[in-house]
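Protein modeling request. Please complete all fields; requests missing the sequence field cannot be processed.
Requester role: graduate student
Desired output: 3D structure, token encoding
Chains: 1
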Amino acid sequence: MEMLRKLLMNRLVRIALVCLFGLALAAAVVAWKTGVDFEALKEMWKQVNDYLVRHPSTLFWALVFLPGLPIPTSALLFTAGVVWRQQPLMACLLCLLAMLLNLTWTYWLAAGPARRLVEKLLMATAVQIPDLPQGNHLKLILVLKLTPGIPFFFQNYLLGFLRAPFYLYLSISMLGNGIIGTGIVLSGAGLADGKLMPAITGVSLIAVGAVLTQMIRSWLARRRRVDPVD
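Delivered output (230 residues):
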């Protein structure tokens, strides 16, 4: 109970719960307005689930490309856990691979074509894209990755556009997003299959990720107080 209380007190978790509640409420309103009842939704989901089970590559590539758009990554990961619930370990590995590929292509799209386009547009002006001081690379990556409310795709594009060191960006992103992402996948698998252990493991990983995030944010706050020049 103490662990649950600490988890619910965490700001990241509360924001995530509010977002999930908002999405559920919006979906309920849309369903009510369009006259869709629970049985119809259940049948629609069964058809989608059956299709994705038969075509796992469709879900995998959706996990690679859709998080590069304004689409909630957590919803996609939860869906993957539900669809691949018979093999939760494989589901986690596939989602981590998809996350790795997504982090890579979004970064290089922003660092390459997008940045060159903006540089060409700015050539006629006196405005230049500022170079990020080398000592601020780690701090910027941590701030963007740990600040609640910044969309996943925006973090990747901005860090790529500013050309933060790729391997530093990738390792920190996979560590932070990977822990919570794996927790979401296992939670979906456990809830869909009615198995307690994957669900508990998933919730525990989300809690670990949230606590780790809070610890690093506290460390950054102390660094700002000690070194206000940065």
